[in-house]
Amino acid sequence: MLTHTMTYKQMQEEFFYDMNNLLLPHLIKVYDKRAKRAILKTTKFPIIFNPVYYTSKRQNRWIIMYYAIDKKLAHDASCVILLTVNTPEGVYVYRKDMGSFDMLITVYPPHFFSRYRSRQLKDNSLTTEEVIIQFFKNNFDGIIARRDNIAESALREGYALGEVLSREYNLTMMKTFITSKMLREDQSLGIIWQNMDQDEINFLKRSGNKKLIEKVNDNIQRARIQLEIKAMTPTLQQEDIKKP
Fold first, then answer.
1. Which of 12, 199, 221, 230 has its CA 20 to 30 A from that of 74?
2. How many beta carbons lie within 10 A of that of residue 108, not counting itself?
């Protein structure tokens, strides 16, 4: 069973051994034909199906979501493969996409899903697993870019930011989630950016993405101005409404 205390080498070995020898044979036997038929019947793309679950003999718990960009991919359906690991601090998710040919594993810590819940879903009634499922259903086709030790992914709902844990063992960790709204220029942007952690701003600046860096610099300046105005506004309003 994969645990969070393993070395990177052990994590990679356990993940791929269990996936290749136990999970994939099960999917081929039980679900691949069903996914193919469902893709051929649908008329709307891209499509992602509800998750299926599998606990292996090695006690690894997997969540699998088949998806297709178009009908041509029905004969070789791709799927998001997630391995969940419970820890004292919360649930870690280890992701691999079938359909990609690299050995890259992307790790999502509990903090990432906490940010996704508070910034995108804004729903405290959902369980942690429901939040995890919602994130991957809505953002299953994001592409991860790695630059030096920084990792980033442009998603349907925003951006994921993180770092490369190990190039030798192809492990990347996405540490936080930023919504599209937080990068959009609107009247509330100053307030939104004030709620960002400094490490998130630093990730953006270090990413090498010029457009994002420009937004960071411009919006931080705008945030400062808006906060100065906001700090002055209550006093001015109180003075204006006083009766003589």
1. 12
2. 25
